[in-house]
Amino acid sequence: RNLSSLAIGSVIGTAGTVYTALFMSLRALDGSYAAGGKYHTQIAKNLQPRFATAAGPVMNLNVFVLVSMLATAFLAHYNAPKFFKELAGPKDGGSKLPRFNQVVVGAFGLAALLCGSIMAAGFTTFGAASQGFILNNYATADGLAFVARLGISASIIFSFPLNFVGLREGTLDLLNLRAKAARDDVHRISTAALLAVVTSVSLVLKDLGLVV
């Protein structure tokens, strides 16, 4: 109910994503997964790097999946009022809008940098063999990849509440229960029910590209 409880988790999750971007960039440069590389034969054949040699179509329709992914990566408008409301204002009592703008620009700038570097590193390493969840491409014997998986897990776990708040509020609004959202029973029941639905779907669908 208060975003301040997520502050420490946000730092941990962001650190995990930064580490993953650095790890993937390292692997893209050191050639560990290229033919003859240390880990090339330790991953399934369908996960090994694959790059087209002939000219393809002018436009690959998978670009629409990319657009959807970018929309998801930069989706935060539903929590913007909550962020603004809970953001501490200046000590002199002035408007906190300038500080809010700085937070937004910094956050979106970092997200763009991380997303761009991860996309570039993943594709230059595996090409057409890149999986919807790119870390699935890396060998289980790769210790740095294991740490990256832990980092991304932390990022997902700690960012999930931010996405979930928007889902819960939107669902309650759709059911005309927004006025009762502050009640403990409505809050708990809606949280448990929606978590059950989301978790059940996640146990069945494995391809993040399809979900996006």
Structure description:
The chain has 212 residues and is an all-alpha fold. Helix content is 61%, strand content 0%. It is built from 7 helices and no strands. Helix 1 packs parallel to helix 4 (97-126) and helix 1 crosses helix 5 (143-174). The model has no long low-confidence stretch (mean pLDDT 88).
List the helices and strands and how they pair.
Layout: H1 7-30, H2 63-73, H3 80-86, H4 97-126, H5 143-174, H6 184-204, H7 208-211
Helix pairs in contact: 1-4, 1-5
Shape: globular
* Average pLDDT for all residues: 88
What is the string of SSEs from the N terminus onward? HHHHHHH
Proportion of strand residues? under 5%
Q: Biggest sheet, in brief?
A: none
DSSP helical segment count: 7
Short description:
The protein has 212 residues and is mostly helical. Helices cover 61% and strands 0% of the residues. The chain is built from seven helices and no strands.
Structural key phrases:
mainly alpha, 7 helices, globular
